[in-house]
Design brief:
Rossmann fold, 8 helices, about 300 residues, eight-stranded mixed β-sheet, three-stranded antiparallel β-sheet, 11 strands, single chain, globular, about 20% strand, alpha/beta
């Protein structure tokens, strides 16, 4: 009963703090590349989306911004997006902490591996360009992702093309990390890299091999009984970050499987929300800068 009341209080308080979201086109002048998908965007169960060709950002500004912003990449095996429980449903919870929350509806790769990463880089550019408007410090912008969206978030954290697109921190829910056979999630690998990718391409997108000392500080969470994206993905990434002396926090819950996101039926929701909230409040280390003013 106590746990039910705690979760109910969490839902009520976060709903009360929600602001009206702002939806923005990611590439208002047109994207620099194509995934070669055609036809209209299609829906999936529980508010999901597939066949995405027109990517967007949905911005949830915080009423009392603390200077931080977080861009979320929903999962879906690089063939669709779980837009609600791995996206919009978390907005008001982050807003209550003063964090401006942004959901990225990114394009499916359809074998064009460069497309999702280019969308993620554009997302962080746009957030930083409008940082002052939303009360965000451009040096406190993080990337977050779940499952294949976790792979995209970690791709940005390891393969960023410039300091302008390097995130300041990363949060990963049960992420796909490796593209190596036997470790990777087969559907994500095929959708991103195609049927028979080269060894060079497989290595490039096996992100445990791309970690450097410039990779941002990280918070990783998963369930030990996840059979869809096996724990070796997260553990390998954790070890690579540790070897590079990048601050990293790893949380493995004993049960829960895959894909729980912000769902209340995940047994350890109270634990992960509490641990992540504390990490966001006390565990992050940022350069000393003045926070951006909110217009």
């Amino acid at each position: 009963m106590k746990k039910i009341l705690t979760l109910s209080f969490l839902v009520i308080t976060t709903l009360l703090s929600a602001q009206k979201p702002l939806e923005l086109p990611l590439w208002p002048k047109g994207a620099p590349n194509s995934n070669e998908l055609t036809g209209p965007e299609q829906g999936r169960g529980n508010g999901g989306a597939s066949n995405v060709t027109n990517p967007t950002l949905t911005v949830y500004p915080a009423d009392k911004p603390n200077g931080m912003a977080l861009i979320m990449c929903p999962g879906g095996g690089y063939s669709g997006l779980a837009m609600n429980h791995e996206g919009h449903d978390m907005a008001s919870w982050f807003n209550t902490q003063g964090i401006t929350y942004v959901v990225l509806k990114y394009r499916m790769p359809n074998g064009h591996y460069e497309v999702p990463l280019s969308d993620a880089e554009q997302a962080i550019r746009l957030v930083r360009e409008r940082a002052a408007e939303w009360g965000v410090n451009p040096q406190r912008v993080g990337i977050m992702g779940a499952s294949a969206g976790g792979h995209l978030a970690a791709s940005l954290a390891t393969l960023f093309s410039s300091e302008k697109t390097r995130p300041d921190f990363q949060i990963l829910f049960y992420p796909v990390i490796s593209m190596a056979q036997g470790i990777t999630h087969g559907g994500s690998r095929k959708a991103l890299l195609g049927e028979n990718p080269s060894q060079e391409l497989e290595q490039k997108y096996s992100l445990e091999r791309q970690v450097s000392a410039r990779s941002p500080q990280a918070f990783i969470m998963l369930s030990s009984d996840d059979s869809a994206v096996i724990p070796a993905n997260s553990i390998g990434y954790f070890l690579a970050l540790r070897d590079q002396k990048v601050p990293v926090s790893l949380h493995i819950y004993p049960t829960g499987g895959h894909g729980w996101g912000f769902r209340d039926n995940f047994t350890y929701k109270r634990q992960w929300t509490g641990e992540l909230e504390k990490w966001l409040r006390e565990g992050l280390v940022f350069p000393a800068t003045e926070p951006a003013s909110k217009k």
